[in-house]
Amino acid sequence: MQPRYDLHFRIVIVMVAVKLATSLPERLLIGALVEKEYEGHWRAIEKAVENLNLNLFQNMVVIVDRDTIQPQDSFQAQKKVCRMSQTGIAAMFGPVSSLAAGHVQSICNAFEIPHLQWRWDARDNRDYFSINLYPHYLTLSKAYKDAIQHWGWDQFTILYENNDGLTRLQEVLKTSDEIKTPQITVRKLEAISNSDYVSVLKDLKRRGEFRFIIDCDLRSITKILHAALKIKMISELFHYFFITLDLGLLDLEDYRYGSANITAYRLIDPARDKVVNVKTDWLRHAKKGHESPLMGYAEIEGNSSHTLLTETALAYDAYELFAYALMAYSKVQEVATMNQPCDKMYTWRHGNSLLNYMKSSAIEGLSGLIKYDGGERMDFVLDLLSLTPKGLEVVGKWDRKHRLNITRENVTPTDTKITNKKLIVTTYIKADIGIGDLTINLVREQAVDFTKPFLTLGITILFKKPAPKALNLFSFLSPLSFDVWVYMIAAYLCVSFMLFVIARFSPYEWCNPHPCNPDTDEVENQFSVMNSLWFTIGSLMQQGCEIAPRALSTRLVAGMWWFFTLIMISSYTANLAAFLTVERMVSDINSADDLAKQSKIKYGLYGGGATQEFFEKNQLPLYIGMWEYMNRTKEHNFVKSLDEAIQKVKKGDYAYITESTTAEFVIHRHCDLMKVGGLLDSKGYGFATPTGSPWREDLTEEILRLKENQFIDQLYTRWWTKEMEAANCDTEKSASASSANELGVENVGGVFVVLMGGVVVGFFVSLCEFIWKARKNAKKDKQTLCSEMSEEFRFAVHCFGSKKTKKKQDDEITDNGLQFMPLTGSRQHVHSKEVYA
């Protein structure tokens, strides 16, 4: 029988040893109170319990007694906690609402049951049996203060929804004692609609507020940003610092490209290995149709089922902290729960020790290192997020020991030209002088101090030079318009006809054709139709003729005609010199007004520069219309570089709007380009210095001295004009200016054409006269036309003879200066009634 007793003794010893090694019951109950809107918190605790039941506790199962309450319903909370404590719980989790949590905390303190929370709480003297995984509010407030100090804000506005917001920003409000007494505006945001957010932001914008610290519910952030977007407050001028740890969970796609400074801290790093593994497990669980902890506020705009809220992660960490502390405590003490009805004041003897184990533990959770100092969680790391076109990016880290550490990208110096002229102040860097082509304007002056401008400039238009007009063969007609030429021909014919008529009416124009024979019966009028035409054309051509008016009436007409020809010929001669010697280049546009009124020539600018800002903010109707056109066609007319702009201008039908310094630099290197019109505005380049810097006055004095000594002008000439000698623009200009242009055949060729045309016409007229006369002579001499023409032709080609025998029929030829047909209508018999018409 002895061996049997030994075996039984050994079995009892082993069972006692196993029991002492674990010191845990087979079944342990914990309580959890959650509000319905925070269902994800309970799911996170449930997942943590399932995970640690498998991987941590070998011979024990933790069971969660969960119940839901209405937010801020302290009566329900008290009633349900009493029910749970009566069944014997080892810890109490939740709730989140402050009023209900306060009552639960009081009960747990009375029964010495550890109470785990993960909510923001501003009470410094927290109850003894409570532990909160949310970072301490004063430590968070210091992190906010460090960010404000780093940005160097001396004026900002605090917008808050409730009094807790001011508590969260205690350290920020105290900065007035340390940093130049910043001007702080505090304004409360009531529960208002989107339209009211617009009115509030409009009022702040009108007051010149550009920096905002906003403490609001996560559901209000997108409403505020949407209101800011509607009134154009999403730009590089504005900075929004949100007091939330969940900004990364919102959909900020609409604001990524607005250049606005949107920043916030976060506690949960989604790239941490443990976070990735836990989320992957939860997503796999959700795909099977089970409810997932990855749920938060259903009302959050842009929220999805994959969202991990900070408080959800903290709820998961709360159970892990409890489980690891319980496991450590169970190694030194057997743990057993007890029933504790609310009507009897029993305390749990393990509660105090278990809570101390939790406060002295240090574990790695979803929220990073969980470690307590004096009962408060203070050793944690925050990521500073900033919205960029790529999304929210980490730009710095904060911890209690090292404070805010900004991460900067390494910048490799290059020879790339500065093409973006817009100064965007997103990060303040300590430097003594900012040097570059920085345009001085109001917005930049609010951020830095500028010196006096060392170079004055403005916005102008770069355009292609018009090609010289092709010379016309009859360019000598250009000095007078077509209408003037028609009027001159009409005047010539009218004056000739009137001279003929007046001469026939005037008795003083009828004279004896043979003065040596005073007894002749015939008088003659020299102003026949052909003679009148000959007289007026001779005067017009500044030539003389043997015909001279005798009567006062005809002389008056002739004098007025001579005066007319004097003015016309003088005007023609003066204008002819300019037309023949100067190459006229007529541009399609001569000003911004011409550019805006037409639709053929497209125009644009460099996107994102100071020139674009000028058109965006200008209130003149002309520039408003130009900006609307450019903004509407920016995909085709905006350029990304200066080289692209030059190529578009050279192709024609495109005008590039840029700063005058850039335009002058380009036209001195590209002879086929030019500036059009004057400057659209006036501004200057200056050096930037920190606000209040003593260097500003010294630099300003030196700039003024260099301008008075013409040194800056010399530099401008050197780098803008002398460097363009390779383009030979100056050589061409100097050659054209030093001597008048030589006239080529293309300038005066039309005169030769007219001369040759007149000679040819005269020759054919002479042939007609020759044939006409030969035909009459042949008829009277009773010869054939060919024989008569042959005889006359032989004499005509005998170039050495100028005399011939007069024929009888030649008596009809009159010697009046024109070898033409008989003009019998200009002779009358004196004292005779017969007049030849």
Automatic annotation (TrEMBL):
Residue(s) at site: Crucial to convey clamshell closure to channel opening: I589
Transmembrane segments: 484-503, 560-582, 748-772
Record-given protein name: Glutamate receptor 1
Xref: Gene3D superfamilies: 1.10.287.70, 3.40.50.2300, Periplasmic binding protein-like II (3.40.190.10)
SUPFAM superfamilies, alphabetized: Periplasmic binding protein-like I, Periplasmic binding protein-like II
Highest taxon listed in the record's lineage: Eukaryota
GO terms under cellular component: monoatomic ion channel complex; postsynaptic membrane
Family as reported in the entry's similarity comment: Belongs to the glutamate-gated ion channel (TC 1.A.10.1) family.
Signal peptide: 1-23
Subcellular location: Postsynaptic cell membrane
SMART domains in UniProt: PBPe
One GO process term, biological-process aspect: cell surface receptor signaling pathway
Gene label: 106079964
Domain Ionotropic glutamate receptor C-terminal: residue ranges: 391-722
Membrane topology field: Multi-pass membrane protein
